[in-house]
UniProtKB/TrEMBL annotation:
InterPro entries: EmrE-like, Mg_trans_NIPA. The chain crosses the membrane at residues 15-33, 53-72, 78-99, 106-125, 145-165, 172-190, 210-231, 243-264, 276-295. One of its GO terms (molecular function) is magnesium ion transmembrane transporter activity. It comes from Amphiprion percula. It is a multi-pass membrane protein. It holds the Pfam family Mg_trans_NIPA. GO terms for biological process: axon guidance. Belongs to the NIPA family. Signal peptide: none annotated. The lineage of its organism: Eukaryota, Metazoa, Chordata, Craniata, Vertebrata. Its main location: membrane. Keywords: Membrane, Transmembrane, Transmembrane helix. It is found in: Membrane. This is NIPA magnesium transporter 1. The keyword Membrane applies.
């Protein structure tokens, strides 16, 4: 990407890819470590906020998010985002080792299908990104994107205020929907900060306007990440870490693609071949999610059966 300082012989894009891969493995461990901390604190009868393992997962999440921020500003999002699939697969392996959360054959197949389908979606999604602050400002004020953002905010309010308290602990899709919808703001804000920062901290005539936009994007990013962090832990209190992580990755990726298409008007560059490939990728993802849901229901039924046996004994 133009404007970035490069190491001799190494492009900024390659550096971004390396950072993205490392961040994916770090992010893959966060849900597992936080889940382990929640289980440890529940066994002790205390709060997970006092558990060192939970805090190690939280620290991993912070480091991973910083890595993602750097990667998104060094390499195209279309390259960085699919690398998150590595974290999903690593998290599933780690969960089997640390949490003894073993997916059945349907769960394993669903996890792989979700990752493969998401990668196909991203590879064939049309690509266009803002290259200047002025272009970003123009696109942020586009009526189509503004309408979409307002609809997302209203949907988030409905999910957080009414649906989550009633159905959040029984349906993993509620917390997945909340966390993934915030992806509409997380990735565009991360990319926007990289574009706006040079103007915001310069002595140019438009530095004041750029600084305001920089602070707005930073605030949006902070609120988005903190809210996702809260509801991710709510989900981990109730559901398997590897099932939640796989479905969350799919939903987050899909919302990022949709928001990017609206913000940058990418649908105008969509070809018939890419459209068909994206449809196939989406169908693959849907099958994967269904298999994971079946795996989750089977796990819940097994736990209820075991609890019934313990009460009988």
């Amino acid at each position: 990407m133009a404007g970035h300082t490069e190491v001799p012989g190494v492009s900024s894009q390659n550096i971004g890819i390396v950072i993205a891969v490392i961040s994916s493995f770090i992010n893959g461990s966060t849900f597992v470590l936080q889940k382990k901390g929640i289980l440890r604190s529940r066994h002790r009868g205390g709060s997970y906020l006092t558990d060192v393992v939970w805090w190690s997962g939280t620290l991993s999440m912070i480091i991973g998010q910083i890595g993602n921020f750097l990667a998104y500003n060094l390499a195209p999002a279309v390259i960085v985002t699919p690398l998150g699939a590595l974290g999903v697969l690593f998290g599933a392996v780690l969960a089997a080792w640390i949490l003894d959360e073993h997916l059945n054959i349907l769960g394993k197949l669903g996890c792989v299908l979700c990752c493969c389908g998401s990668v196909v979606l991203i590879i064939h999604a049309p690509k266009a990104e803002a290259t200047s602050r002025l272009e970003l400002e123009e696109r942020l004020l586009d009526p189509v994107f503004v309408t979409y953002a307002l609809l997302v905010v209203l949907l988030l309010i409905a999910l957080i205020v009414w649906i989550a308290p009633a159905h959040g602990r029984s349906n993993v899709m509620v917390y997945v929907a909340i966390c993934s919808l915030f992806g509409n703001f997380t990735v565009p804000s991360s990319k926007g900060l990289g574009l706006v920062a040079p103007d915001a901290f310069s002595d140019g005539p438009s530095s004041g306007r750029a600084l305001v936009l920089f602070l707005m994007l930073l605030g949006t990013l902070a609120v988005s990440i903190l809210t996702q962090f809260f509801f991710i832990n709510k989900a981990l209190e109730c559901f398997s870490s590897n099932i939640f992580e796989a479905i969350y990755y799919v939903a987050f990726t899909s919302t990022v693609i949709l928001a990017s298409a609206l913000l940058f008007k990418e649908w105008t560059a969509l070809t018939a071949t890419d459209g068909l490939a994206m449809f196939c990728g989406f169908a693959t993802v849907c099958v994967g999610v269904v298999l994971l849901r079946i795996c989750q229901e089977a796990s819940i039924a097994w736990k209820k059966k075991e609890e019934g046996r313990e009460k009988t004994d």
